[in-house]
Write a structure and sequence with these properties.
Elements: E1 4-9, H1 21-24, H2 29-43, E2 46-51, H3 55-68, E3 71-75, H4 84-91, E4 97-101, E5 123-126, H5 131-145
Parallel strand pairs: 1-2, 1-3, 3-4, 4-5
The chain binds ligand CA2.
Residues 12-13, 15-16, 19-20, 24, 75, 77-78, 80, 101-103, 105, 112 line the site of ligand CA2.
Length: 147
């Protein structure tokens, strides 16, 4: 059985650690990937870790995942608050989906309080910094062990 898990990251997250450390911390996206790979190894997951600034690319990866993966962690970044297209793509997936935000979006501007992706996500983590990714992967590990 596949143990493939996708971790997808949306626009501007390639700048992590390079701008706005007061909001997003000083770890880079490479650090996030390394942390995810370490947790994935514990659970025997194969990891596909991707970032794109393009909505269509994230949707294409979701389509790819729906055929091959057993779970997904996604930080859709600003598309969280705008993209019905990403929600629709996620809605076609049968595996568990966890939405992660590095910052506590509920403590920020009102436009960040609404998430289209949360209408599909099986769980949401916000404000735990980059540790949120590891927590979401561990939850996937628990859920997948039970199936
Ligand atoms: O807190 C999160 O993880 C967000 O998904 C990050 C998005 C933001 O639009 C969401 O409301 C919350 C922004 C990602 C931009 O990342 C940057 C990182 C460093 C410097 C500039 C942007």
């Amino acid at each position: 059985m596949s143990r493939l898990v996708y971790v997808l990251n949306g626009p501007n997250l390639n700048l992590l650690g390079k701008r706005q450390p007061n909001i997003y911390g000083s770890d880079t996206l490479e650090d996030v990937e390394a942390g995810c790979r370490s947790v994935a190894a514990e659970y025997g997951f194969d990891l596909r870790f991707q970032q794109s600034n393009a909505e269509f690319q994230l949707i294409d990866w979701i389509h790819e995942a729906r055929e091959t993966a057993v779970g997904m962690v996604i930080n859709p970044a600003a598309f969280t608050h705008t993209s019905v297209a990403i929600l629709d793509a996620l809605t076609t997936c049968e595996f568990p989906v966890f939405e992660v935000h590095i910052s506590n979006v509920h403590k920020r501007e009102a436009f960040r309080h609404h998430s289209y992706v949360s209408l599909r996500a099986d769980g949401v983590i916000a404000g735990f910094g980059i540790e949120g990714y590891a927590l979401a992967l561990r939850r996937l590990g628990t859920l997948l062990a039970a199936t």
